[in-house]
Structures are given as C-alpha cells and as structure tokens.
C-alpha cells in the first residue's frame, strides 16, 4: 500500500544534480568577477556547508572572490549572481515527464508530499515557480531553515508541516550528505533511489530505479 506521507530529496532524486553544468557555470562566474575559474570551483566545493545554510548568492561571490584576493565590482557580482540563479531555474525545471507523472499519481492516490532539500539560496528562490512546486504540499530548504540534512530538525520540520508523525513518513533520496541515515534516525522509513546517481550503495534498505517503482515498493 502506498504511504500517505512522502518526503523527497531534490537533487539526484527528482532532478539530475547537473554537476558538470554547475562547474561550467561557476567557471563563467569566475571570469565575470576576475578570479581563476578552477580556484573558484574549488572554493565553491570547499564551502558547501556555509552555502547550504547561510550565504546568499551575492555573499558567496563576495566572500570567495575575497579569499582569492579580488574585490569585484558590484555590477560584476550582480551579473555572476544572475548567471547562478538562471542555472538554478534550469536545473529545477529539468524534472522529467516520468517524474512529474509519478508525483501526480501519488497525489491522485491521496498522498501528501514534502520536499527536504540541502540546497543553496538560489534553489529555494527558484522553487516556487518551478514545475515541481505545485506537486508538493511542503518544501523545506536548508538555506531557509538554517540547518541541513542529516540534522533531525530539517526532517521534523517537514513532518510537522505535513501534520504527520515521522513514523508515518517514507523518505526517498539518493543518499547524499548522510540523508538516509538521518531520516531513519527520526523514525522515517527510507527508500533509496538510483535513478540519477548511485550515491550511497551500501545503504541496506529498499532501492528503486524510478519514482514509478514507489507504488510497488514495500517499506
Ligand atoms: Mg540528493
């Protein structure tokens, strides 16, 4: 039987994480603000925790360019930030028709859906207008809440917003950032997806290949 409450990860679960495109865009942002592209890509990777829960796009550019010895002009920062925001909109709107249909089928079956995403501020900004948003009852972003997975608070915030006990929620994710163990720790049942990436291959629980398989998955 389908669970009544489903909690989904975003990147590499509902959409491709677009890792290659992210690297390309950060390289182009580096050129806009006058820093070395590979150094900025590395600085982005090294500050995932800060970007996830604290920094806006503009703060990220200012802080990382500063660490690389450059104080960029405001118009260059604005152009680079706009470039990054356009990437976030593209990535979120790239959710495939099979994913959208699977979500619609879950809702048609009476399920209520939540999103719990470790995402930087531009993804949270892009969310309300993206193709996925109307399918979800609740969306909790680390950049808005100020804590990310696997901190229990982000899962509990989603369950509370759904009006659900965590034990009645099924969490679906690829497994980045220890998110599957984090969901299990608050009492959610867990399904790992490998549709976009085989992120956490040693996770011992059920695995699906596409979201359609959720209907046949017993958790
Ligand atoms: Mg993910």
Could you characterize what this model shows?
Keywords: Hydrolase. It comes from Dactylosporangium maewongense. It holds the Pfam family Hydrolase. InterPro entries: HAD-like_sf, HAD-SF_hydro_IA, HAD_sf, S-2-haloacid_dehalogenase. By secondary structure, this protein is α/β, with parallel strands linked by helices. It has a 6-stranded parallel sheet with strand order 3-2-1-4-5-6, with helices on both faces. α10 links the parallel β4 and β5. α1 packs across α2 and α4 crosses α5. The mean pLDDT is 96. The site of magnesium ion (MG) has 7 residues, from loops.
The percent of residues in helical segments reads: 40-55%
Top-tier CATH class of the largest domain: Alpha Beta
CATH fold descriptor of the largest domain = Rossmann fold
Distance between the termini: 9 Å
Q: Give me the number of helical elements.
A: 10
Low-confidence stretches: none
The domain tally reads: 2
Write out the strand line-up for the largest beta sheet, numbering strands in chain order.
Answer: 3-2-1-4-5-6
């Amino acid at each position: 039987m389908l669970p009544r409450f489903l909690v989904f990860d975003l990147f590499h679960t509902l959409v491709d994480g677009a890792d290659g495109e992210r690297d390309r865009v950060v390289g182009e942002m580096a050129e806009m603000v006058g820093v070395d592209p590979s150094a900025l890509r590395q600085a982005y990777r090294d500050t995932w925790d800060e970007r996830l829960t604290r920094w806006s796009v503009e703060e990220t550019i200012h802080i990382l360019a500063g660490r690389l010895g450059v104080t960029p002009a405001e118009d260059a920062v604005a152009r680079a930030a706009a470039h990054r925001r356009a990437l976030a909109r593209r990535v979120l709107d790239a959710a495939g028709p099979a994913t959208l249909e699977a979500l619609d089928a879950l809702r048609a079956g009476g399920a209520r859906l939540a999103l719990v995403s470790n995402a930087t501020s531009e993804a949270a900004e892009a969310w309300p207008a993206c193709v996925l948003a109307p399918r979800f009852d609740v969306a909790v972003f680390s950049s808005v809440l100020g804590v990310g997975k696997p901190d229990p608070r982000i899962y509990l915030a989603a369950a509370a917003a759904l009006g659900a006990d965590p034990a009645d929620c099924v969490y679906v994710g690829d497994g980045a950032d220890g998110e599957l163990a984090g969901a299990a720790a608050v009492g959610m049942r867990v399904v790992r997806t490998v549709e976009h990436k085989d992120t956490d291959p040693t996770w011992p629980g059920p695995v699906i290949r596409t979201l359609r398989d959720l209907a046949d998955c017993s958790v």
